[in-house]
Amino acid sequence: MMNNQQYPSLLLQKAVNEMSRLPGIGSKTALRLVLHMLRQDVVEVDSLAQSITELRHGVRYCQVCHNICDSEHCSICSSPNRDRSMVCVVENVQDVMAIENTQQYKGLYHVLGGIISPMDGIGPADLEIQSLVERVEAGGIKEVILALSPTMEGDTTNFYIYRKIRDTGVRVTVIARGVAQNDELQYTDEVTLGRALVGRTLFG
User: How many angstroms separate the CA atoms of 129 and 111, rounded?
Assistant: First the structure.
C-alpha cells in the first residue's frame, strides 16, 4: 500500500484505505475507484453511499431459508408457485441466484451460510444446519437436494447433513457431478448447473 506522503489529501487516503478492505480490491484499484467517484456528480456519489448504508441497515435474512430479503420471509419462500416438498441446500446467497438463473428448479432453498471447514475454524454449529434439520422434522418436505460445491469441504458437509436427516424418511439427493471437482457452484455456467440439478442422484 502507498505510504501517507503519496496522498495529497487525508480524505483521499481514508477513502482508499476503506475501499481496499473489500475482497479482491488492492490499493491501486481502490485509488482508481475513489478517483473515479471524485469525477462523478455529487448526487451520484451520494446515491451510491446511501444505497450502501440502506443495504447494511435494511437487508434482512429470511427466517425460513436464510436467503437475503427485505422482510421476514424472502420472495421464494413466500411464493405460492414454489414446490414446498423440495428443499435445495446451498452454501450461500450467490448459489441461490445461480440456481434461479437456470430456471430448472421450482422448489425452496436452505442457505447454510458456509460449509464445514476445520482449517478455517468453521464447524456445524457455525452453520444453519440445525435449522435445516428442524425444517425437515416439521414435515411436508419430501426431498432434500444437496447442492454444495464438489470440494472436500462440500462433501464433508453433505455427509454431515445426510447423517442428521437420514432417519426422517426424506429422500436425500445430490446434484450430478456435471459440476467439475473443486468448482464453486456460483461460477458454474447455467447450462451445466441446470443439467446437474436435473440429473441429481440419491445420496449415499
Answer: 9
Are residues 119 and 88 located together in one domain of the fold? yes
pLDDT digits (tens, 9 = 90+) for 64-74: 999 999 999 99
Instruction: Judge whether 27 lies within some domain.
Output: yes
96 and 50 share one domain = no
C-alpha grid cell, residue 55? 443495504
Residues 89 and 158 reside in one and the same domain: yes
Report pTM. Answer: 0.80
- Measure the CA dihedral 5/11/16/19, to 10°: 160
Q: What is the DSSP string of 77-123?
A: HH-TTSEEEEEEEESSHHHHHHHHHHT---EEEEE-SS--BGGGTB-
Same domain, 15 and 107: no
